[in-house]
Amino acid sequence: MPVPAPRWVDRRALLAAGAAVVAAGGTTAWVFGPSGGPSGARATVPEPSRTPARPAATASATRAVSPPVPPATATTLHSAAAPSGRGGYRRLVDGPGWRQVVRTELAAAHPGREERRTVLAAFVQLTDLHVVDVQSPLRFEWLRAHAPHDWRPHEALSGAGTVALVERINSLRGGPVTGAPLTCAVTTGDNTDNNSSVELDWFLTALTGGVLTPNTGEPDVYEGVQNSGLPLFWQPESSRTDDDKKRGFPHLPGYLSAAVRPVSSPGLKLPWYSTVGNHDALFSGAYASGGSGFAAEVAAGSRKVEQVALADALRAAKAVQTHTDPTGKVLREIVEHYSRTARTVTADARRVPFTPQQYLDAHLDPRRAGAGPVGHGYAADGVDADHLYYTFDLAEGVLGVSLDTTDRGGSYLGSIGTAQLDWLDRTLAANSDRHAIVFSHHTSHTMTNLITDPARPHEKRHDGKELTALLGRHRNVLAWVNGHTHVNKIESHGSFWEVNTASHVDYPQLARVIELVDNHDGTLSLFTTLIESAAPHRTDYTDLSPTGLASLYRELSYNAPGADLTRFVGAENDRNTELLLKKP
After folding, report:
1. pLDDT digit string (tens) for 103-124?
2. Judging by DSSP bridges, how do beta strands 61-63 and 343-344 pair with one another?
3. Which of 249, 425, 538, 583 has a 20 to 30 Å separation from 359 between CA atoms?
């Protein structure tokens, strides 16, 4: 039942393992696609249930006290990072907060609703963390010759930045608007940057707790483009001029040594659920790797191509943009052509691409349970390596649906297969008396890739328009929450809202708290509030601690050449909002 403010029911639940799960350890088979799973893997499409499977064990308590006032500095309602000075490289300082905008495209805002409302759900969305192994030979930083933002100067700090975001979420004592306890967090894909096994390990460690060491190859030594001496890339520890220092980037002795040091994460204190993105399923987010062959050989090898001729960089970029090279044939030709002059680095087998089965197994490992649930959604009935979609309880009376919109055939754009689309239709119909919030990586506008899924060569793929139409036919759907674009953008679709949230790798490096309330006047409200990591806005170049690095991560991302800051940040009505809609 909904609980009237200022009272609420704390429904944080830790799921116990309800069935046998597959551990991530043991023998590893680097095989991608449908042949990568064990012969006994389930092949049935998940069937809709009246309600999703309940936890085997729950811990809940009712508290009859006034909601705590959330910490004033915890959200962008109070303060957001802002640049100081003019032109060139700009330092960040504490800026004013972003006001809450009331949007009434789907329903009128009736007076007095603040006193009437009751809380139905409150949770956090994390998206596009892009935890990245910057030293992998299976990275194509040389594409920066085509466009400055094809390589980001701050990527080596993704581990520290992710941990600082976890710390911010843990600091929240309740929803910023209602004060109600947060029940869970949900990732909406691109948890990793390059479909790399070691990146998956770091991502899971950051969210479940433990020590992650964002370094591969030689222990305690950085081997990548940022100590290559190439002026195309920022060389932070060198006093020599490079293209980024000409833009004002600082000289930071000790930066690379600090970037590869271990980082301790407390792990999320909330149960959390995982959603897959194209960078989790495809290397570089665009290419079907197969888990073996060219991609695995390059990733685990010792030859790293760091520069190519401009004509080759342009040829590779065109193939990505036109979606004409889903298997990376052009990339392979370029890498093989330059392999003789490539830099020698320390080989590391942990860099190989992971398969869908290995992605699933890693989530199911009980050692990765953290605050729960075991599997982070993927322990649901019917889920297997070829069916990475499921339902879960966001709150009592509120259904969460996590979709897989990636296309394993290749391309960074998404789509959805007929089997999953039909399952979604049945699931929403079977739960028609429950509110539903749908999560995916891709947005309605970025689901235009209809390349056949190798796992289902005869299955039709469906675009964002078809998925939008299906969601609109189910009046219990309140919102579609997603990522992928690295942009804050909120739009209405007749009866529901689409909430697209900016990434945590590009500025402004955010996550979003979403609170659902019943206004008891025939309307509901979705409050969306953006949060930054716990790292201070101001940087101190002498502070190379994990917190200092997380601050640098934000400031460097603001100054990253080619970053479309205005688009990434979004308009006022795409950030902190109250989204009204009619109660189904």
Report:
1. 999 999 999 999 999 999 999 9
2. unpaired
3. 425
Q: How do residues 399-420 score in pLDDT, each as one tens digit?
A: 999 999 999 989 999 999 999 9
Say if CB 308 and CB 302 are below 8 A apart.
Answer: no
With tokens 């469906």, the residue in question is 462
| Full DSSP string of 52-72 | PPPPSS---EEE-SPPPPPPT
Average of per-residue pLDDT across 2-21: 31
Q: For residue 288, is pLDDT > 90?
A: no
CA dihedral 213, 549, 541, 558 (to 10 degrees): 130
d(CA 352, CA 297): 8
Dihedral angle of Cα 568, 570, 576, 581, to the nearest 10 degrees:
-120
What phi, psi does 283 have (nearest 5°)?
-70, 140
C-alpha–C-alpha distance, residues 35 and 453, integer Å: 13
- Cβ atoms of 327 and 333 closer than 8 Å: no
pLDDT tens, position by position, 134-179: 999 999 999 999 999 999 999 999 999 999 999 999 999 899 999 9
Check if the beta carbon of residue 453 is closer than 8 Å to that of residue 417: yes
What does DSSP assign to residue 293?
Answer: T
Amino acid 298 reads V
Q: Is 561 exposed, middle or buried (0-12, 13-18, 19+ CB in 10 A)?
A: middle
Chain center to CA of 145: 27
**Predicted structure pTM score:** 0.88
Taking CA atoms, 7 is separated from 4, 10, 172, 356, 578, in Å, by: 6, 10, 18, 42, 21
